[in-house]
Amino acid sequence: MRYERFGNGLLEAFFYRRPMLVNRYPVYVRDIAPTGVEYIELDGGRLTPEAVERAAELLDDPEV
C-alpha cells in the first residue's frame, strides 16, 4: 500500500507534532483541514517542488 486514509499514521503525526505529506482526499478536505492543522498538502497525489521545499524546511529546522 502506498498511502493510508485517515487513520493511525495521521493521528500519530499529529500527536508527535511531526511533518506529514497529506493528499487532499475528501475526508481530509471536509473534516480535517478546516480544524487548522498544518500538513504539507498534495493535490491529486502529485509531489510538487513547493511541497518538497516545505518538507526540506521542516526537516532542516527542528524548531519549526
* Number of helices in the DSSP assignment: 3
Helix-strand topology string: HEHEH
Strand content: 5-15%
Distance between the termini: 30 Å
Average pLDDT, to the nearest integer?
Answer: 83
Could you give the order of strands across the largest sheet? 1-2
Ranges with pLDDT <50 over ≥5 residues? Answer: none
Number of strands: 2
Largest sheet: 2 strands, parallel
- Report the C-alpha radius of gyration, rounded: 12 Å
Helix/strand structural class: mainly alpha
The gross shape turns out to be globular
Helical amount among residues, as a percent range?
A: 40-55%
How are the SSEs placed, and which strands pair?
Blueprint: H1 8-15, E1 21-23, H2 26-32, E2 40-42, H3 49-60
Parallel strand pairs: 1-2
What does this protein look like?
With 64 residues, this protein is mainly alpha-helical. It has a domain at 20-60. It has 3 helices and 2 strands, in the order αβαβα. The protein has helices at 8-15, 26-32, 49-60, and strands spanning 21-23, 40-42. The protein has a two-stranded parallel sheet with strand order 1-2. α2 links the parallel β1 (21-23) and β2 (40-42). The longest helix has 12 residues, at 49-60. It is globular, with a radius of gyration of 12 Å. The termini are far apart. The mean pLDDT is 83.
